[in-house]
Amino acid sequence: MSDLQSTAPTSVSDPRIIPSTNPSAITLPVRAGDLADALGGTLVGNPDVMLDHPGAIDSGTSSTITFIRSSTYAKQWADSRCGAALVSDDVELDHTDDSRAIIIVENADLAFVTILQAADPGRTRPAPGIHPSAVIHPDALVAPSAAIGPNCVVGPGAKVADHCVLMPNCVIGADTALGAGTVLEPGVVIEDRCTVGARCLIASNSVIGADGFGFVPPKGDRRAIKVPQIGNVVIGDDVEFGACVTVDRAKLGSTTIGDRVKIDNQVHVGHNSIIGEDSIICGRSTLGGSVTIGAGALIGGAVVLNDHSTVGPNAKIAGGTIVLERVPENETYAGIPALPARQALSNHGALREIGSFVRSTERRLKKLEKDRES
């Protein structure tokens, strides 16, 4: 606990806002030839094109670096005004303009991330220290290097580790712990007794540790009875949540989010769910209570996972799918209810034809009846 100090409500004399840093191996502007060398790519065309910003292939200028990851974008290259493009090595591209450059790399998407890192202006963060308007309980432990922004509240027994950042209006409940380097964007609430790992990013207005939805249903004259949710939420390291994510605390034990999990905006995670490491869940998906997701699973947008359903490691679920029971390991599922993707697509194709099939059948039946009558 040497990196933490017991902190009563205090303030820093200079509550200025400083930009966060985003280190990159590449700085802009850069020559196309130097960029190819830095990325380990193969340059075709003009090595002296100066590139100062990333951009879309259909709206760039002579100093824009763009990327081409498929034949769809390759067809747009001839009409593009971009000065250079990163091109995946499995894409065929007709490049005859010696005034521009292409850089052939293994994966254009990954290479372009490096360009975006170089161009990223960063986000504003509070300077280390505690803003005068923040309320820190005397029993809280806040590292001197942590940054606590305006109107934040840190409850009794809470621990805020080195280099954590709390943007304005965040609330940290009693006995909750934040790991080193974790950033909470404005309006985040982490309720009592929860644990968040190191280097996590939780975007605005997310709520971690709200009560799980547990009630004994009404019967006769008895009203619904609330079931106490006495567990917590445990989040691993390097996890990222989008805006307005809600993760309910467990009835017993912990709702668990594994290391490096990425969750998009407006996702709901029900109580006692377990999400394995390296899983990705896209926006507006809903997990019922006691859902289990294996490591490395990919969940599309607006997916619904029924209570107690399971998703195996490395499984993929298409957007809009409703899972009632189980998706096996390494399988891809789709549809309502969820089926193996090929079966779901086949069923969908058949459903699209059912109207014409019914009309055709009705015509044939009428003809048979007419022929029989005659």
CATH architecture of the largest domain: 3 Solenoid
Main sheet specs: 12 strands, mixed
Specify the structural class.
alpha/beta
CATH class of the largest domain: Mainly Beta
| Proportion of residues in extended strands | 25-35%
Helix content: 10-25%
Average pLDDT taken over every residue = 92
| CATH H-tier superfamily of the largest domain | Hexapeptide repeat proteins
Q: What's the Cα radius of gyration?
A: 27 Å
Low-confidence spans: 1-24
CATH fold-level name of the largest domain: UDP N-Acetylglucosamine Acyltransferase, domain 1
Number of helices: 4
Question: Your description of this structure?
Answer:
With 374 residues, the protein is an alpha/beta fold. It has 2 domains: 90 residues, 3-Layer(aba) Sandwich (Udp-n-acetylmuramoylalanyl-d-glutamate--2,6- Diaminopimelate Ligase, Chain: A, domain 1), CATH 3.40.1390.10; 215 residues, Hexapeptide repeat proteins (UDP N-Acetylglucosamine Acyltransferase, domain 1, 3 Solenoid). Helix content is 15%, strand content 29%. A 12-stranded mixed sheet has the order 11-14-17-20-23-28-31-34-37-40-43-44, with helices on one face. The chain has an 11-stranded mixed sheet with strand order 1-13-16-19-22-27-30-33-36-39-42, with no helix packed on it. A 10-stranded parallel sheet has the order 12-15-18-21-24-29-32-35-38-41, with no helix packed on it. The protein is flat and about 90 Å long. The termini are far apart.
